[in-house]
Q: What sequence folds into this?
């Protein structure tokens, strides 16, 4: 399949998804089961993206300074630290580990 065929197919799929939004009745989205599922799916998608970006590399699985930074940020968030403190502590921990050569 050529690049243009892939782009056209993806464009048609996105247009179809947008048009489905006009066809589905409003009551479908207001149903409690649908609302619960959509809130759970949002969290699951975010968790999977964080996991993929933290543990993935070009060659496969990577255990490096990003993992330590994410774990530290998670602990600080659990302790209800301010968000700016979480971001600075995570970045600083990764920078120190990389600068000292303890982790790549």
A:
């Amino acid at each position: 399949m050529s690049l243009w065929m892939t782009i056209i197919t993806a464009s048609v799929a996105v247009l179809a998804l947008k048009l489905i939004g006009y066809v589905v009745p409003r009551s479908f989205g207001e149903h409690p089961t649908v609302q619960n599922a959509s809130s759970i799916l949002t969290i699951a998608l975010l968790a999977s993206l964080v996991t993929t970006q933290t543990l993935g590399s070009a060659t496969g699985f990577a255990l490096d300074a990003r993992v330590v930074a994410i774990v530290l940020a998670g602990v600080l968030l659990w302790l209800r630290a301010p968000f700016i403190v979480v971001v600075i502590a995570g970045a600083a921990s990764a920078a120190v580990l990389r600068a000292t050569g303890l982790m790549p």
Remarks:
- The two ends are 38 Å apart (CA to CA).
- Helices lie at 3-23, 26-30, 32-55, 65-78, 83-100.
- The mean pLDDT is 92.
- The longest strand covers residues 56-57.
